[in-house]
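Methods: holo model generation. Sequences were used as deposited, without trimming of termini or removal of tags, and paired with ligand SMILES retrieved from the corresponding compound records. Each pair was processed once, and we did not select among multiple samples. The sequence and zinc ion SMILES for this entry were:
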Amino acid sequence: MQLFVSESAFWGLLVSAIEVYKKESYGLLLGHRDGQNFFAAHAVACQSAERHSNWVKAREKSYARVVNFFQRLPTLSLIGDFHSHPEHEIALSPEDVASMVRNRVYVTVEIKDKAKDKYWSYNEDGTLSGTTDNWFIKIAAFGLDPKTRKPRMADVLCPFAIGFNIKDRA
Ligand SMILES: [Zn+2]
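and the model returned the structure below.
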């Protein structure tokens, strides 16, 4: 299971997590699915999501409107969603797991105050992490295993992000 993240989706994940820090961001992933592999072309934040510090849920009505809109796009599909875990690790909560369905990909974005600079790189567990000006950010992806129907981590691939580092302040 792999999730390929475009440059646009990478920025979408980061900006939405940073914007509402220390609350949770929430949004939708648009792109394509090929079997158990996914390509996220865009990560679109949902403005009306009710944000709390440890859970998030889009308001039902506006969420349904956005989902319907995306489901009718001819070239892109709704492949999953994302939310941030401010000052929490990437692991899925029981509520996160309960909302999962097959053939979708779910991204969690850990965000916390930066302790020291870290260039963006892949980690052993398939996650991708690095720092920005003020934050440490780790991106993880999960899907339901088709056999066990339990959550499984996917490898997050984002060539654009690798080696990315924020400019030093002169
Ligand atoms: Zn969560």
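Residues 50 and 102 are 25 Å apart (CA to CA).
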